[in-house]
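Below is a filled-in request sheet from our internal design queue. Each sheet records the structural input a requester submitted and the sequence that came back. We keep these sheets so that new team members can see what a complete request looks like end to end.

REQUESTER: design group, bay 2
PRIORITY: normal
MODE: inverse folding
CHAIN LENGTH: 372
BACKBONE (tokenized):
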């Protein structure tokens, strides 16, 4: 009898139950004539912010609005987040030095914590910005900028480096930092509690990239095998979200708990964007209308309506996309493939496949800024 139950369990793992999911319409958010464009941030109105490459190969922060795309600055730059008022946070290079910026009609340089470089990664609906800056001593520190005052959130868990990647309306901040042991661990910071180390899924490192108003955090963690899986931190528990076959990484979460990111496919060097709904990770490419010529490779943000932005292949180029689930009849079921492990790059390298690689440069620059 025990052997029979074991066989049934194995069959169940190999052939998961079919799950219904939305069918998405895809809107091309446009490009600047270069080879790539990516949307990293999204608000409730469907406006997005990100980066796009020009025909000369330069990357610029851009605003995607109702079918149009516009520069935020002519300097090398990237927009990382946008709030419901249309305020945008990102990073621009001034005389070759990275500076945290907020764009809203005009450009506002947020300055630094005394060092040379700073990077704005997130903005909430109050206009508070989170990111990372060098101190006068050259250490990298997570910051929260509120009402024009940049606050140093300090070192994390005995280490000498930290960076923020998300901020919610309660001014909770999520990101990751170096521990005293030299590992990188995800954190949730608040005024009342300071840093909370979110732990890992069994490996040495974890990285928090997204946060909602309920205090739920998403990101990725290494497993004991050394591979990585997307996680959801909620109620003090770090939950493994699985994958589409290879390693997976989560970047965005809305207040309903819908999670987006991307996963490598098993035995492949191809990544696919995913949405995590009702306990199931769905490949967005399996949720497109028949005949779609898109291959959605990464998803970075999801809003309250369930719209999703990211990047994907379209007509031979990487374009920014907006995925929308229109009202309609019930959707057909999807057969979800079992999760397996496959070694893939960590979050610091995700933009190697995204637009132009400027975020890759920014994030690596942050990690290298580990001076005490």
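RETURNED SEQUENCE:
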């Amino acid at each position: 009898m025990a052997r029979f139950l074991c066989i049934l369990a194995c069959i169940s793992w190999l052939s998961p139950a079919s799950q219904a999911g939305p069918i998405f319409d895809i809107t091309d958010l446009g490009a600047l004539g270069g080879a790539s464009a990516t949307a990293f941030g999204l608000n409730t109105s469907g406006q997005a912010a990100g980066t796009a490459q020009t025909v000369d190969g330069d990357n610029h922060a851009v605003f995607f609005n109702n079918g149009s795309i516009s520069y935020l600055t002519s300097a090398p730059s990237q927009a990382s987040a946008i709030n419901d008022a249309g305020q945008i946070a990102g990073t621009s290079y001034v005389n070759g030095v990275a500076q945290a910026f907020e764009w809203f009609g005009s450009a506002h340089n947020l300055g630094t914590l005394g060092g040379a470089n700073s990077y704005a990664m997130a903005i909430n609906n109050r206009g508070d910005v989170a990111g990372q800056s060098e101190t006068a001593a050259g250490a990298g520190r997570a910051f929260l900028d509120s009402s024009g005052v940049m606050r140093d959130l300090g070192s994390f868990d005995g280490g000498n480096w930290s960076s923020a990647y998300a901020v919610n309306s309660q001014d909770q901040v999520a990101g990751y930092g170096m521990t005293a042991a030299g590992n990188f661990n995800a954190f949730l910071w608040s005024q009342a509690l300071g840093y909370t180390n979110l732990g890992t899924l069994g490996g040495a490192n974890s990285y928090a990239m997204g946060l909602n108003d309920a205090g739920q955090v998403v990101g990725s963690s290494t497993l004991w095998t050394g591979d990585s899986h997307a996680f959801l931190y909620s109620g003090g528990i770090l939950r493994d979200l699985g994958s589409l076959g290879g390693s997976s990484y989560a970047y965005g979460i809305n207040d309903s708990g819908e999670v987006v990111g991307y996963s490598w496919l098993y035995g492949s060097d191809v990544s696919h964007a995913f949405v995590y709904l009702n306990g199931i990770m769905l490949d967005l490419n399996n949720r497109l209308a028949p005949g779609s010529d898109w291959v959605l490779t990464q998803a970075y943000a999801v809003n309250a309506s369930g719209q999703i932005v990211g990047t994907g292949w379209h007509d031979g180029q990487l374009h920014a996309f907006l995925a929308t689930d229109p009202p309609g009849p019930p959707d057909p079921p999807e057969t979800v493939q079992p999760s397996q492990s496959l070694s893939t790059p960590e979050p610091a390298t995700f933009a190697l496949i995204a637009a132009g690689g400027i975020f890759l440069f920014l994030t690596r620059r942050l990690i290298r800024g580990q001076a005490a």
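SHEET NOTES:
- Residues 1-18, 335-346, 348-372 have pLDDT under 50 and may be disordered.
- The radius of gyration is 20 Å.
FILED BY: M.R.
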